[in-house]
Each structure stands twice: as structure tokens, then as C-alpha cells.
Design brief:
This protein is α+β, with helices and mostly antiparallel strands. The chain is built from seven helices and eleven strands.
């Protein structure tokens, strides 16, 4: 797999330090499963962070620190989405067209995703995730289709799982990730013979530019 578009350095550092929202953690972990270069970058960031901790002066803790930490861990564990039994790693997982970190949420095959039509040529699958203030969903866009020109209210990450699209930034194929902020406006157009299937995480709803697109946004829900 030839990957040309990678995670921003800031996103890599936030992921390595555990500072990313759960929705974005899913998409970053899925990209890492497909990209050896970004996996190496995360390992380096983790090593740098560990070295910084080793050099930090020790601080005194209150007597109930461990008890409060245990309560926080228990509370966080209760908010996690349980992984279905079908997502256990196996030889079939290795051959799956779904990255391993995503399999616990959608299963092992893109063919089994429960798609819903939003507009002609575009289908969506929402992924419900506990403990996140962001949105996580999948899009399946037909060959030759264009998304309306749009910007973003905050950070948006789009990971291509199958097919490809092209915009002003370049061409994005399987494994490529678009790590965008609120300053970027673009109009992705599918240029593959098969539908382009993407995993998308957004902080805020998409800002469509066209009048008709803005009117339809409540129905589309992107």
C-alpha cells in the first residue's frame, strides 16, 4: 500500500500523549494500522514523552491519590464501548478490508456495513461512541460523485478505506488521511471506478458553501 498523506505532527503528539478525543483516536489508530511511517513517528513521540517524564522532578501525593485514581479509571472503563466477540483477532482479521482498531465498531467487512442513503450517490453509517463530544461516521460516495464545497468548524480527519478521491490538496487513496483544520475549504470528487469509502471524525458540523447545500444539511447530518 502506497500512502502519500499522513497525520499532522501535532495530531501524532496528541495521540501519543493520550490527549485526543475518542472519535479521533479511532481514526488515528485505524490509520496507524495501515501506515508504518506514522507508527514509527508515534513510537518516537512516546519515547520522547517517556524521557521527559523521567527527567521531571517527583511531586508529593496526597494520601487518597491512589483511591481517586482508581475511581477515575473505573469511571472511564464504564464509558467505553464494549468490543463485540466477532472482533477478536484471528487470521481472518489480517485479510479484512477493515483496519483492526475499527473492527470492534463495524465488524470485519466493509460489505457488511449498514449504510443509509443521505443523498443520491452518497451513503452514511454513523458510529456511536461513548465519551466523545465529536462525530464519527463513514461515508460511501459513488464513482464520479462530488461532495459540495465546504469548510470545517474545527478539526476534521478523513481516512480513505477503499477507492479514492481528489481535491485541491491532492489525491487520496486507501490509507491516506486528510488531517484538516477550520482554515481548509475543499470539494472532494471520487475518481476511482468503485465507490470511495471513508472514515470521518469531526469536531463541529461541516460548513457547506452553497445555499442549497446549507438548506439540506439538517437532512444530510454531516
Amino acid at each position: 500500500m502506497s500512502i502519500h498523506h499522513h497525520l499532522d505532527d501535532a495530531s501524532l503528539m496528541r495521540y501519543a500523549s493520550g490527549d485526543l478525543d475518542p472519535a479521533f483516536c479511532v481514526i488515528v489508530a485505524s490509520h496507524l494500522a495501515m501506515c508504518e511511517g506514522c507508527r514509527k513517528a508515534v513510537r518516537l513521540a512516546e519515547a520522547v514523552g517517556g524521557d521527559c517524564l523521567d527527567r521531571t522532578e517527583e511531586a508529593s501525593l496526597s494520601a487518597d491519590s491512589f483511591a481517586r485514581l482508581s475511581q477515575m479509571i473505573d469511571a472511564e472503563a464504564g464509558r467505553q464501548t464494549p468490543a463485540p466477540a466477532a472482533a477478536k483477532a484471528s487470521a481472518a482479521d489480517i485479510r479484512s478490508d477493515v483496519p483492526l482498531p475499527l473492527q470492534s465498531l463495524i465488524g470485519n467487512s466493509l460489505d457488511d456495513v449498514n449504510w443509509q442513503w443521505v443523498v443520491p450517490g452518497v451513503q452514511r453509517h454513523r458510529i456511536e461512541l461513548a465519551g466523545t463530544g465529536s462525530s464519527l461516521f463513514m461515508l460511501k460516495i459513488g464513482p464520479g460523485r462530488k461532495m459540495p464545497e465546504h469548510g470545517h468548524g474545527g478539526t476534521e480527519m478523513t481516512l480513505v478505506l477503499s477507492g479514492s478521491y481528489r481535491d485541491a490538496i491532492g489525491r487520496f487513496g486507501p490509507g491516506d488521511i486528510a488531517d484538516l483544520d477550520e482554515h481548509v475549504e475543499h470539494q472532494p470528487a471520487v475518481d476511482s471506478d468503485d465507490p470511495c469509502i471513508c472514515l470521518v471524525a469531526t469536531e463541529e458540523p461541516t460548513r457547506f458553501k452553497g445555499f442549497v447545500s446549507r438548506l439540506m444539511q439538517p437532512l444530510v447530518g454531516i
